[in-house]
Every structure is written in C-alpha cells, then in structure tokens.
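Final report, closing paragraph on structural work. Over the funding period we assembled a curated collection of sequence-structure pairs, and we close with a single example.
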Amino acid sequence: MLGGFKLTKWLSTYKHVLAVVPDKDRATAAVNIDLDGQKTEKVLGVTWNFGSDAFEFAVDLKHKPITLRGLLSVISSLFDPLGFVAPVVARILLQRLCKQQCGWDEEISQDYASVWQEWLRDLPTLAAASIKQCFIPPDFQQPIRRELHYFADASTSGYAVVVTYLRVADDDGKVHCAFVSDGKNSPGSPEGSHSASVGTASGNPCSSTRSVLTKRAGHRTG
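Its predicted structure, as stored:
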C-alpha cells in the first residue's frame, strides 16, 4: 500500500479468509474461534454476529428517572446509525414533552409515564432480532429481477419511508426479501407535516435508502 500502513484486526465470516491471516493480525474475537458459534463484535458501534453474518441489538437498559433528561438518556443509548430500530414511539413521546415545555428534571405526567414504561417493557425483545448483513443469501442464484418496495405515509407524527424491502428473484423462481430501512419522526409543526407529505410523494425517501444500501453493500448486494 502506498501509505505504508499495515492493516490489522482482520475479521471475516469466512473461515478460509481468516486461515491465511496470522493470529497477530486478526481481531481479538477472531483468534481461535469457531464460526459456527455465536460470536459478536462491535463494528462502528453496531453489534455484528460474524458467525451468522447478521446485525444484532444488545439492549442494556440503565435505570433512569422518568424525566425528560432520563428519557433522552435511554433513547440516545440505542445506537442505530443504519436506522434499523428507529424508536419512533419514544421519540414522539419526547417530542410531545418538549412541546409542553417540561423541565429537564421534572417528573412527567402519569399518562406519559405509562406509555414510556410500556415501551421499556417491550424493548428487551430487540435482543431476539437480527438482520442479515448481506441482502442476498450465499446460496441464492444470480438475481434476474430486483425491486425496492416502499411502504410510506406522512402524518403529524412520522414521515418518509416507514419500511423498505429489497425483493430479488432468480431464474428458478426463488424469491428473497431483505429489510433495508425504517422511518423517521416528523417535525412538530403543521408546515413540517406538509413538507413530509411532499417528501413522501416526490420520492425523497430514496436518498436515505440509497445511503443504507451503500453502507450494507459489503460483499454481495446482487
């Protein structure tokens, strides 16, 4: 390499790739491992199971007071740069509390507290979810058709792409669908809701989807 830098901390889902990398140049998690097991590593803050080649979600909730500051702390702890989780319900709640001008350390009302606690109870179920890193599985034949399916809408609460899937089909008629991206919160004003409707109708969600497609185009996107 022109810069003279030696790349280290190698990690791969393929055993034959790691076999040619000396132990001293591998990532710590890749030394003396069995890829058939459940092995995870942090990649830019995202949990990656390199045994199954899938993104996973580690949920480790810390007890926080039921205040605006506490809610923001918990929501921010869900690091989700690829937009898989998009905690829309929690962010809507945060948005409504800000509109009411709640103090940072003021306990929120019982109605909002009930919604928050219900969301917290459901959150650990994320640990059972996983999203394949590669859009097309290794045993899939060469795709002859690729389609992006958008399920989109706009309201005073959310806008743009709600859910996007990539659908591929091969010569044998086999079909595979892969999750691409999730939605966003809407601005709090009526004008923002109008802009959201225009953005959805005009196809602007494609820009965010292209970003996710690029980030996940690691080794085989079809």
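Residues 15-56 form one domain. The mean pLDDT is 74. We thank the funder for supporting this effort.
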